[in-house]
Amino acid sequence: MAEVTIPIRMPFKSKQEAKVDKDSQVYKENAKHFANYVETLEKAEAIARAGGGEKSIERHVKRHGKLMISDRIKHLVDDVDDFLELSLTAGIGMDYGHVPRGSTLTGIGKVRGRYCIILANDGAFKGGAVYPITLKKQLRAQEIAAQNRLPCIYLVDSAGAFLPLQAEIFNMGGRSFYNEAVLGAAKIPQVAIVCGSCTAGGAYVPTMADDAIIVNKTGTIFLAGPPLVKAALGEIVSPDDLGGAKLHCGTSGCTDYFAADETTALQMGRDIVSSLNVFCNEEKEFAQYDEPLFDVNEIPGIIPSPKDHHNMNMFQIIARLVDGSRFHEFKAMFGVCLLTGFAHIEGHLVGILANQGGIGEAEATKATHFITTCCERNIPLLFFQNTLDDSNNTPESKEEALQQSLSMKYQARMLSAVSCAGVPKITVIMGNGFGTSHYLMGGRAVSPNFMFAWPNARIAIMEPHKLAEKVAQESELREEDAVTKLEEKLEKESSAIYGSYHVLNDGIILPNQTRRRLSQCLSICKAYRVPQEQSYPIQRM
């Protein structure tokens, strides 16, 4: 009997509810406010894409004859326009200065039809030196690889650790090698292409890989480079003689493939991926799907300023992101401060949880029921996060205290359900990510497959101004200027854009990019996924 696909046709409560008045003063003020966040983001992205600057780039390309990392990606992936770069703005505004892209580019693209995660050192910035933020970004990329079973391709071009900051790098520096071994043992392929220097600890990347390619003349691998050899032994030796392609392909055997130039090496990398004997799960072709009925570019006018984020209408947001603006709402009359329901994103069936207020006993119960239902049906979960700050909910009576205890009990069940969900989880922080509710709604701590944020989003233990008051009170700060500076600092640190600098999310995306990003991530999550068996029944109440 042929499989029957039942489309979700349930509309919103009313199309009228999804409409917005673009001529209203509130809409215009919201859009103007959002534009300020976009401007901040664009400045950070410009710094990231500028890399090491014109002189460094010229030296990298003309003197050393190397390709830029963006060009390496173009030669390696099938379609650069479909490449999903992660944490573009990592490394901006560090205490030790800007480190554009965190000195390494990470992202996911198809190579010969197979999704791979790519980790590429930026040799045009400080010789591809590894900073603390570089390590953090690399480890996050390997975590994504493990969770989604993505083959890893390392484009190595690094002078090793930035030694003045070795105290912040060394202890966890070897974790990337540990991950490489564990990923390989889990039958997740590891491929290295040595495009430039591969010094000190970095030498283990190609030598631990399943397949290693090295570029003649520019690719080198050694634990101690020529300067250290001269200092220790007084001998002068060239990088190529000490650890070049001919030596490692012909004598040491540390590398497997000799490439005359970078473009050849990258083509070899593509050929190796073809031989990995891994294939993406066959996906139903979603050539035809309905676009949302409402304009996604209206979303900035829907998003209130941070102090009014709690007024964000999630129905209006969802209407502009899902196929045909169709949302099959689940338990619509119960736990009304949390929206749950089914929809499609570019043809992908998903279960959506979206904040429309605080998470109390009813909302947590509803969420647990919905999450376990999605796990039973093997449906990915999307968390659209805009939580309330519940830090000041001090009970004023025994009845309130009992109610809070009950809420805590049901929230604990929800947190367990979120943490143990055996389906892909993707989180987009659209407004606030405050307090415990941030964890309940797929925060980084519960290991979503991907977590993105809109530029207006804020993530913190509580509202920054409340946190400033609490810290000032506990620290006995009485000077008004000191309290104001503290609040400004906490406000800055709660910003999702600031978080992206420190790899606390997987990148900042705009509302009009969200639908495409979600679709990409859903395809990536499904590519090599082995469905997990449900180990518990659907938890209704």
UniProtKB/TrEMBL annotation:
Record-linked Pfam families: Carboxyl_trans
Catalytic activity reported: 3-methylbut-2-enoyl-CoA + hydrogencarbonate + ATP = 3-methyl-(2E)-glutaconyl-CoA + ADP + phosphate + H(+)
Class of enzymatic activity (EC top level): ligase
One MF annotation (Gene Ontology) recorded for this entry: methylcrotonoyl-CoA carboxylase activity
Any single Gene Ontology cellular-component annotation: methylcrotonoyl-CoA carboxylase complex
Name of this chain's protein: methylcrotonoyl-CoA carboxylase
Gene Ontology process terms (BP): L-leucine catabolic process
EC code: 6.4.1.4
Domain (CoA carboxyltransferase C-terminal): residue spans on this chain: 288-541
CoA carboxyltransferase N-terminal domain location: 33-288
Pathway per the UniProt entry: Amino-acid degradation; L-leucine degradation; (S)-3-hydroxy-3-methylglutaryl-CoA from 3-isovaleryl-CoA: step 2/3
